[in-house]
Amino acid sequence: MDTKQKIVIESLKLFKRYGIKAITMDRIAENLGVSKRTIYELFKDKNGLVDNCINSLITEEEEITKNIIEKSDNVIDGFITRMKRTIILMSSVNENFLYDAEKYHYSVFQRKGKLRDDNEYKMTISFIEQGKKGGYFRSDINQDIVARLLREQMKIVANEELFPAEDFDKAEVFTNISINFIRGIATSKGIEILEKYKY
Question: So what's the pLDDT on residue 52?
Fold first, then answer.
């Protein structure tokens, strides 16, 4: 692992735990035992570092999702495993992480958000196609429409006006959206597996 990769991994760990604004370049250098100059030789500024960190997070989550789907017995099992993984991720990341990214690094947040949305859309299409072939999802659904709907529904989880944090648990909102989505497109064969998970 090279120095740049080590800096990205350590920075992302700190950003996820404390939020982006709270972590200075000095703190990152101190944690890694390198000079701040070393960091600035590899990253133009904090914005550039955040860019690399968010990119690393997206790539990591995509790889984990692919592995989950490949190792699952069927798409329903894969979906539930991914859902539980996302809930763990939500609870382990400081709520200021996304807030800081949007407020203080908006260009990065917007660009990476679009990249993540596009990748999620493609994975959802592939997931639906796989579910149709296995007989777990209804053959009559329009996968393009359904994938777009899911993408937009997931954005609602972070909507503070609709689901204020003091009244709603984000993980519960996410779970309700996820289960209603999967039940809506599942065949009786798919629902039978869902019910084994008590959903």
Answer: 95
